[in-house]
Amino acid sequence: MDLVPALEEPLKQPLKSVLGPATAKVMAEHLGLRTVGDLLHHYPRRYEERGQLTHLADLPMDEHVTVVAQVADARLHSFASAKAPRGKGQRLEVTITDGSGRLQLVFFGNGVHKPHKELLPGTRAMFAGKVSVFNRRLQLAHPAYELLRGEGDEAVETWAGALIPIYPATAKLESWKIGKAVQTVLPTAQEALDPLPDSLRAGRGLVPLSEALLKIHRPHTKADIADARARLKWDEAFVLQVALARRRHADTLLPAVPRTPRPDGLLTAFDARLPFTLTEGQQKVSREIFDDLATAHPMHRLLQGEVGSGKTMVALRAMLAVVDAGGQAAMLAPTEVLAQQHHRSVTEMMGELAGWGLWREAPGQEGGGGPGEGVMPGGTEHATKVVLLTGSMGMAARRQALLDLATGEAGIVIGTHALIEDKVRFHDLGLVVVDEQHRFGVEQRDALRGKGKQPPHLLVMTATPIPRTVAMTVFGDLETSVLDQLPAGRSPIASHVVPAADKPHFLARAWERVREEVEAGHQAYVVCPRIGDEEDDPEKAGRKKPSEAEGEADKRPPLAVLDVAGQLAAGPLKGLAVEVLHGRMHPDDKDAVMRRFAAGETDVLVATTVIEVGVNVPNATAMVIMDADRFGVSQLHQLRGRVGRGSAPGLCLLVTEMPEASPARQRLNAVASTLDGFELSRIDLEQRREGDVLGQAQSGARSSLRVLEVIEDEEVIAEAREEAAAVVAADPELRHLPGLRTALDALLDEEREQYLEKG
């Protein structure tokens, strides 16, 4: 659905098509373009000037590119092959140039005749194909091309003006064919209904939408492009901000039970037994959360905290405040290891205040892996039960936990996605805390929020915001609290890149450093991208899209925990106590391994990213991350946060075989150069873009942002937020702004509408 009926017309119809049926089919299947409006909003990626050539040295490997260049020479070679044994095979090699660099084009067989006649030295053309390397030279094999001839030629009519738009294209449909299709529908732009209120457009000096569409697709000058982009950025920012402002407005109308802690209740008792003082940041963020909890509409807050900044402490105080006020609190963790870790640390922090809690895991109980029935001695008048709920618990313990939640006996529950199941009933759910928000789908969070009699308050925690989270934050969808101070006693972490292929002796030194840390009485982690058991599929583990293939290291499977652990125990770490931990181990075994490591019985833990969040072993000071280039920026930062948690300084070594000039190495250098998670999330966002700000970002859905860039355009977004808030406050239903209402309907298809509803 797009802006108006003329723009909603499908490109492909049973009786008549706007474009040829084959072109329309490729556009729908490969570019997601189904209507005239979709095509008009498929903007050029860049523009080439008719007299200028593409800079060939900057072409990305393994990407589908469109270049404008001049033929330097063309040579036809004959060769013998199985199909042409008498030396009658033909290969045409054409060299194109931008005046400094060169690129080889190659055509084979019957495909040589047309280019041999047309690609004469001096000819200028657009070429499209996939960049590869052959004999150490860049080449395009069998590229499609479009000649750029003299002024009277049809190509000049099609590409009016001196600027040639280069569109995001596909191997099935070249940029110039998309350009010709756009020219076919461009007259329809006059019928586009303008979503911006007239006063806003006039006040900011923005051109009308129809003019912006003409100028972005058929610019005569660079000023035309600037005008069009400025206008279209505002469209994207404003319509999105209106969507978010309407949702915030709707949130203020939802009822929620205000939760104010008792003056001398559980929270006061907890604070009194803390052996340290909360940081200023923790106190400030706690006040923001308590203010939200005291209101009669649901809190919707994102708690961003540097790794180790004490987010769990802030979340626990919020949960205790809700229990104090007669409600229950649920913490949703992404893995069993993390849920168990949180349960253990919460009960330890609460001490006798968790006097009725299930406080220890007792292996070998009915069903295996369930919490033990041991009750911590003591307990006070303020105590509340803290229960654990995970998928692998034994039946008896699970039944008891479910009963405690339903009766209200348990004030706090910590669990995995098992909390979301239909069987789980709460007596009075007042607060949901989601740890590591990017691990959960919207549906999962929504299912848990739906378990309250009225919408519960929601607190989302993340250590390093992934790009989409940063995007949502910049867009102001969540109220945001930031913890940027580390608690006293936390130590700095030194990070270094270890180039294993260029300098093998650096890797040998890395293992020496691990031994030195162990000899000094400390422990170490070694992290690998995959497990390495028979169920492990190297094709799936760490697999990258072709466009991300950056070098030889991609040709071997990622390193595996089981292989590396064996090699280390028999080689550089011989004599040390080495254990493994990964997600496919039985929960009892995982917990036993973590307990031994926490107790200092294990020197080196070789693990997958199962240790990424929440694992807290202050004596662990060193971490070696194998094939570090296989992990994302935020994941590396999370992993690194597992060391330096005590008084001794931490060390993180990022091992890679990627060459120095590769983007992967630049990413690792960025991680090594800063401990600031917020700075790293910006780098991550600049590299990966923001995904679909309204949709399922991690699933690779097409971005709803085409010209707006979250990092570069923060100012536009902030201004659009103010304008949108004013518009929605004056007219929440947008009754007087039909153009905006229509644009909003186009942006918010059913799936995205639900996404916004669920948060």
List strands and helices in order, with pairings:
Blueprint: H1 5-8, H2 21-31, H3 36-40, E1 46-49, E2 64-79, E3 89-97, E4 102-108, H4 113-118, E5 124-134, E6 137-141, E7 144-147, H5 154-158, E8 163-166, H6 175-185, H7 198-203, H8 209-217, H9 222-253, H10 266-273, H11 280-293, E9 300-305, H12 311-324, E10 328-332, H13 336-350, E11 385-389, H14 395-407, E12 410-415, E13 429-435, H15 442-449, E14 457-462, H16 467-474, E15 479-483, E16 493-499, H17 504-519, E17 523-527, H18 561-570, E18 578-581, H19 587-598, E19 604-607, E20 620-625, H20 633-640, E21 650-656, H21 663-673, H22 677-688, H23 714-730, H24 738-747, H25 750-758
Parallel strand pairs: 4-6, 9-14, 9-15, 10-12, 10-13, 11-12, 13-14, 16-21, 17-19, 17-20, 18-19, 20-21
Antiparallel strand pairs: 1-8, 2-3, 2-5, 3-4, 5-6, 5-7
Helix pairs in contact: 8-9, 9-23, 9-24, 11-12, 16-22
Q: Your description of this structure?
A:
- There is one protein chain.
- This protein has 759 residues and is α/β, with parallel strands linked by helices.
- The strands form 4 sheets. Strands 11-12-10-13-14-9-15 form a 7-stranded parallel beta sheet, with helices on both faces. Strands 16-21-20-17-19-18 form a 6-stranded parallel beta sheet, sandwiched between helices. A 5-stranded mixed barrel has the order 2-3-4-6-5.
- The longest helix is centred in the first third of the chain and has 32 residues, at 222-253.
- Mean pLDDT is 81; it is low at 151-161, 356-379, 538-554 and 695-702.
